[in-house]
Design a protein that fits this description.
The protein is an all-alpha fold. The chain has 31 helices and no strands. α22 packs parallel to α24, α27 runs antiparallel to α28 and α27 packs parallel to α29. The radius of gyration is 31 Å and the shape is flat.
């Protein structure tokens, strides 16, 4: 603070207090946001300072009708509390929160008290939380206003982490179970949404004997909103169970049946149709938790979802197909998932993009022979009439694709695709493919003839008359240095990228600077005299973009400009 501690405390605090009552919410929001850093400054200057006036302003902001102001005030309160010792928290904060709890006329005050106890639990620590928070929690469960009971349920998550499993089981769990049978559906909905959170902090026995039957209770609730909340929590809830699950447990079999029934519903109602979207999204978590042994029960459901009329359902499955394949393994995937994979490739673009994005991961699960039959997919996706974004997705994983095929397939099928991608007419496609070329080079390790052919083609780009080709070489160089062997890099990249420092085109010197920075991070080249000398040469370049890349302190622009910069001479490849 430029005006010093004394004037800050005597002049600014009254001003902030007045502004906290300003009719303009923007002003009140600014006050709430600034209180945290302002108070931290005051505490650091004088740790014995009386903070009551600050907290008066802060609690005024906490009770503001504007949610943005209230949220900002909570953040400020936590930042202040982190600097206070347990003694001052007990002396200043706890009494104020108790006043809020005891306000029988303002339900918002009681709800705020719950929120603060939850948010402050990590700062208060286990001892203060057990001493001041746990004894009063039952009062909230008996509150006559259901919104307060809802606030209690939704504010429990921090308490679980602080007090641990024993106190969660003995104190919080009974309160949670009590509210889960509340007559107001909104309270039950909040409990259903919290079941996965509390499940992570109780024993396996409690999880199976108490929470699993409770989940069934939520899933058959008279309120559709409670059922929807239970479904939303289903994936995280089952993930909280240890693996492997017993195959003969009645509760788990009920969970499987519940999931399958929801996924197979034919109800045309909009809300119920969302169930299938949730089921598709949660399917990998369900399969991962229950294991391959439950696949015979889940397979009809999965196949049904893959044929669902809603494209959102099919899209979710398409994006997670590789995860399901990894769980099921080679044999089952080839029999049950490959037909679905082929169907998705012919689906809408919104669905197709999911399998294309993770194509390498899915194909890596299949056997080599089966994998080879899908190289046509890559070729088809490169055809110009198709969405160029598909080519971009292939470009991002072409190195990974090369690594999962044998030498012959790489030579005959993958390499033409590589050359096509790095010369694609769309710059974003080229930019996606270039960082993958290093992996392609590594994949040819046992085929020295093809590897040398590729390296020589790349090397020739460095002497091309086209500056675009030289840019491509520099981009490949930047990523290859961390992937290929030092010997290959020295023989095919180093000399050429060093010469780029003297290129007449400024854009080439810019990408050369970027590449050499990556080269200098390689332990083998970090002390290479030629590399260091060339970087030093570039640091004296006359082009501002080169200097910005190297972050030279006397560069014309060595900061984030507050006004638009003049057009850069750089061209992205």
């Amino acid at each position: 603070m430029a005006i010093g501690f004394e004037q800050s405390s005597t002049l600014l605090i009254p001003a902030l207090e007045s502004m906290a009552y300003d009719p303009d919410i923007t002003i009140r929001l600014a006050v709430a946001k600034s209180l945290g850093s302002f108070s931290v400054y005051l505490i650091q200057e004088n740790s014995e300072m009386d903070l009551n006036q600050i907290f008066d302003i802060l609690f005024k902001c906490l009770s503001d009708k504007g949610n943005e102001v209230k949220d900002a005030a909570v953040v400020s309160l936590i930042s202040i509390a982190e600097l206070l010792g347990s003694e001052k928290i007990e002396e200043i904060l706890i009494p104020r929160i108790n006043e809020l709890m005891e306000n029988d006329y303002e339900e918002d005050c009681r709800a705020l008290a719950i929120l603060l106890l939850n948010k402050l639990a990590p700062v208060m620590g286990p001892m203060l939380t057990r001493q001041h928070t746990l004894p009063v929690l039952e009062n909230f469960t008996n509150d006559p206003v259901f919104r307060v009971r809802v606030a209690f349920v939704t504010s429990m998550n921090s308490l679980f982490k602080i007090i641990g499993m024993e106190d969660t089981t003995s104190i919080l769990l009974p309160l949670y179970l009590k509210l889960s049978k509340d007559e107001i559906w909104t309270v039950r909905k909040s409990c259903a949404g919290m079941i996965a959170e509390i499940s992570a902090f109780v024993s396996e026995e409690i999880r199976c004997q108490e929470l699993t039957p409770l989940f069934h209770y939520f899933s058959t609730d008279s309120s559709r909103w409670v059922r929807a909340a239970a479904l939303s929590a289903f994936g995280p809830f089952i993930v909280s169970f240890p693996k492997p699950l017993p195959a003969d447990d009645e509760n788990f079999n009920k969970l499987i049946s519940y999931f399958c029934n929801l996924a197979n519903t034919t109800d045309a109602d909009v809300a119920d149709s969302e169930n299938q979207v949730f089921c598709a999204f949660n399917f990998p978590a369900v399969l991962s938790t229950f294991g391959v042994k439950y696949w015979p029960l889940l397979q009809p459901t999965y196949e049904g979802l893959s044929q669902n009329l809603q494209w959102k359902v099919r899209r979710s499955l398409a994006y997670s197909l590789h995860e399901v394949a990894a769980i099921l393994g080679n044999e089952i995937s080839e029999v049950t998932l490959v037909p679905i994979f082929e169907t998705f490739l012919k689906d809408l673009d919104e669905v197709k993009v999911g399998v294309i994005k993770y194509l390498a991961k899915f194909l890596s699960v299949l056997s080599m022979e089966r994998r080879k039959t899908y190289t046509y997919v890559l070729e088809d996706l490169l055809q110009p009439p198709l969405n160029w974004r598909f080519r971009k997705l292939i470009g991002k994983q072409i190195g990974d694709l090369a690594c999962i095929y044998d030498d012959k397939t790489i030579s005959n099928e993958i390499m033409p695709i590589v050359y096509s991608l790095i010369s694609d007419p769309v710059a974003r496609v080229r930019r996606a493919a270039l960082p993958q070329i290093g992996k392609v080079i590594v994949s040819l390790e046992s085929n020295t003839e093809k590897r040398t052919e590729l390296l020589e083609k790349i090397q020739k780009l460095s002497t091309s008359d086209s500056y675009q080709n030289r840019l491509v070489f520099a981009k490949i160089c930047s990523s290859a240095v961390s992937v290929v062997s030092n010997e290959i890099f020295s023989n095919y990249f180093l000399k050429e990228i060093l010469l780029f420092a003297q290129d007449k085109v400024p854009n080439i010197r810019v990408v050369a600077a970027e590449a050499l920075l990556q080269v200098s991070k390689n332990e083998h080249f970090s002390q290479d005299p030629q590399v260091l000398e060339t970087i030093d040469l570039l640091s004296k370049d006359t082009d501002q973009d080169v200097l910005i890349v190297l972050k030279v302190t006397n560069a014309p622009y060595n900061f984030e400009p507050k006004v638009p910069m003049p057009p850069s001479t750089s061209v992205n490849v």
